[in-house]
Amino acid sequence: MKKHQVKRRSDEALTEARKTAVRMRAEGYTAKAIAAILEVNPNTVYRWDTQAREGGEAALTVQKRGRRKGEKRRLSLVQELAVRETICRQTPDAVGLPFALWTRRAVQLLIAQETTVWLPIRTVGLYLARWGLTPQKPLKKAYEQDPLGR
Description:
Elements: H1 11-26, H2 31-38, H3 42-55, H4 77-89, H5 104-115, H6 121-130
């Protein structure tokens, strides 16, 4: 395994590699030797060793990375539910908007009207996609066609 592929290991394998590195370091192996065996950078071995000394073995377990679900959103969960409920139950003209059907622009104005939060049109599209509301194109069908072909 190449050094840059360490992140592709499973969480359990990475945790085990960290524990092994700390154990080998305590047995007197050099960071360079451990790094060669585990196929990581020696600085990584030093970092793992420091984490183990400062936080114990619990510090070696792999933590979840990235933002939590729903974190850093412009609309709160309550606001999202209210807007989505309005979109699903009413038409734009029923809530005082100058649109016949829901568009991203109509939803943008609804959000501004109900929550006083102004969202860019692209962000409105992301919210709609997250809610499972995708743009629909009407069927292209000639309404005055003769089904019998006369």
